[in-house]
């Protein structure tokens, strides 16, 4: 599945071409009730992550970290694997290291926080906080240390990455002491209040190859790790289990049972602390009839199933949930024709539709959704638009990053939305978006500002007619008069460096002038200059065409 060629990955979206679709727009009506609040619009979008921690300290990685931090300074989080992996800090695909723990000849611990501090410092200096993943197993502590370092490529078998870092520790007491010393160091370096604002979670996807131990051994790993964190900082925010596949079969259920009623291996007491809980949800794209077909239903089913398990535990129903990885597919560092969506607006429109509906899935089960980690960052020393799942390529932002820029501009109360082209949450969960497109909106009001995110999404990457959207706002509390409308857009010609790059001939060595043009094209772009619109008897209407795979953000300001 993963051994696909680079050219197919880069140009997979173009291979989807079919005969021209009808150009006539079809009507869609979206109604928003400004007086009908659904509660606070929580900024669930503000979490990002990657396998490779060391990329974040390099030129383009640090640049992207700065862009993420600017979205909501000191409220954005970055989660990464390999913070305890043994090595010299040289990154590679699905690999990273910090050399935080080694042992001397007598087997005594040697702690070195230099590289991990550099990773955290890079984020904190740019407004991004650590979502600290406690993993993976240092070589000196692993029960099966040989082989340890893997050398994975997109053409390799995925299982080849599961080497010595994935095994349980030889000594759980030493493991707990490592985590204690690490947390203690962070408190001393960054201050108690700062570290209290972080997330500390144990391991990654322990129900699949990332953990080469048993379920019981994972619970023991969790207990000793959490005990180490809490001994250094009793008020630290700790959690897990970052299970793959939503509920991961019965793994999530058994883990919650352990935390609620099991015997703690580190303390001997009943139960283990759980301040937030986490799982992963992935879509499942394919390549059919010469085009990409996304699998949004797969991601929604992962989320729906995990939320149902959480809701079945009264003691955890209101515990904050972070979907530790929420993405259209399962491998950021893979390539292939089924992944040809990544550079295009199919990725951005999928992301808009998916994040908006996560709020609805949480409301369905009455659980407390804190956030969702977009497992996409950037890769150094790879070709431009190489077909990896990332937010930027060689310092050039992809269209998907502008969706997060849009969402960062939304705040206040989430408002009730009705759309005549809403595909429906349950229908999408069961069948995906395979017949008519899904065109709907996420809306919020914050004082004299009302924001509306509108998407036009379909699972199939084939041409389609634009939607002629009539947006109707009612029960506006501002009184009659003029309101300023600012309209941002992501489509083929707006907020889209990929299209510009292709127009330039797909250069792998762009000139300085071309690079500057691409940088500018990757920013969030207004559809037109701000305009004045009128509120009449608490109502306002505006119309616009929305192409297939496009996303719009409309901001109404009453000043």
Automatic annotation (TrEMBL):
TM region positions: none
Entries under Pfam families matching the protein: Glyco_hydro_39 (PF01229)
Keywords for this protein: Glycosidase, Hydrolase
InterPro entries: GH, GH39_cat, Glyco_hydro_39, Glycosyl_Hydrolase_39
Entry's Gene Ontology molecular function annotations: hydrolase activity, hydrolyzing O-glycosyl compounds
Keyword Hydrolase on entry: yes
Origin superkingdom: Bacteria
Biological process (GO), any one: carbohydrate metabolic process
Similarity-based family: Belongs to the glycosyl hydrolase 39 family.
Official protein name in the record: Beta-xylosidase
Source lineage: Bacteria, Bacillati, Armatimonadota, Armatimonadia, Capsulimonadales
């Amino acid at each position: 599945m993963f051994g696909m060629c680079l050219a197919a990955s880069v140009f997979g979206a173009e291979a989807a071409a079919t005969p021209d679709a009808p150009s006539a727009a079809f009507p869609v009506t979206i109604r928003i009730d400004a007086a009908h609040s659904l509660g606070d619009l929580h900024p669930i979008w503000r979490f990002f992550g990657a396998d490779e921690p060391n990329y974040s300290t390099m030129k383009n990685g640090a640049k992207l970290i700065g862009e993420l931090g600017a979205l909501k300074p000191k409220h954005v989080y970055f989660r990464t694997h390999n913070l305890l992996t043994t090595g010299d800090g040289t990154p590679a695909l699905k690999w990273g290291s910090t050399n935080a723990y080694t042992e001397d000849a007598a087997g005594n611990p040697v702690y070195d926080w230099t590289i991990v501090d550099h990773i955290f410092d890079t984020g904190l200096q740019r407004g991004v906080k650590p979502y600290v993943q406690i993993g993976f197993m240092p070589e000196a502590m692993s029960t099966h240390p040989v082989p340890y370092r893997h050398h994975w490529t997109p053409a390799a078998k995925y299982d080849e990455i599961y080497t010595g870092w994935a095994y349980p520790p030889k000594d759980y007491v030493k493991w707990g002491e490592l985590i204690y010393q690490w947390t203690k160091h962070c408190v001393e370096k960054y201050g108690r209040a700062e570290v209290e604002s972080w997330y500390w979670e144990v391991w990654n996807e322990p129900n699949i190859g990332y953990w080469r131990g048993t379920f019981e051994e994972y619970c023991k790993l969790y207990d000793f790790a959490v005990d180490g964190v809490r001994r250094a900082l009793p008020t630290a925010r700790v959690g897990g289990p970052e299970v793959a596949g939503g509920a991961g079969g019965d793994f999530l259920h058994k883990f919650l049972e352990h935390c609620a009623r099991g015997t703690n291996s580190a303390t001997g007491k009943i139960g283990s602390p759980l301040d937030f809980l986490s799982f992963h949800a992935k879509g499942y794209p394919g390549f059919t009839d010469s085009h990409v077909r996304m699998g949004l239903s797969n991601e929604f089913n992962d989320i729906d199933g995990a939320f149902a398990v959480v809701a079945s535990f009264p003691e955890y129903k209101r515990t904050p949930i972070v979907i530790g990885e929420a993405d259209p597919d399962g491998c950021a560092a893979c390539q292939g024709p089924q992944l040809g969506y990544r550079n295009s607006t199919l990725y951005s429109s999928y992301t808009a539709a998916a994040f908006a509906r996560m709020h609805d899935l949480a409301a369905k089960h009455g659980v407390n959704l804190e956030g969702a980690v977009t497992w996409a960052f950037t890769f150094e020393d790879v070709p431009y638009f190489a077909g990896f799942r990332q937010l930027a390529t060689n310092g050039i932002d992809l269209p998907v990053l502008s969706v997060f820029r849009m969402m960062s501009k939304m705040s206040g109360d989430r408002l009730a939305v009705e759309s005549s082209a809403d595909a429906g949450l349950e229908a999408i969960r069961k069948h995906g978006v395979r017949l008519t497109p899904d065109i709907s909106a996420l809306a919020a009001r914050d004082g004299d500002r009302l924001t509306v995110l509108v998407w036009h999404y379909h699972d199939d990457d084939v041409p389609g007619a634009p939607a002629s959207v009539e947006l109707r706002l009612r029960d506006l509390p501002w009184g009659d008069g003029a309101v300023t409308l600012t309209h941002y857009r992501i489509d083929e010609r707006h907020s889209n460096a990929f299209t510009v790059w292709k127009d330039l001939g797909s250069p792998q060595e762009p000139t300085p002038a071309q690079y500057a043009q691409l940088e500018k094209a990757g920013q969030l772009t207004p559809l037109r200059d701000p305009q004045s619109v009128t509120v009449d008897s608490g109502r306002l209407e505006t119309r616009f065409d929305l192409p297939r795979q496009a996303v719009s953000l409309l901001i109404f300001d009453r000043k």
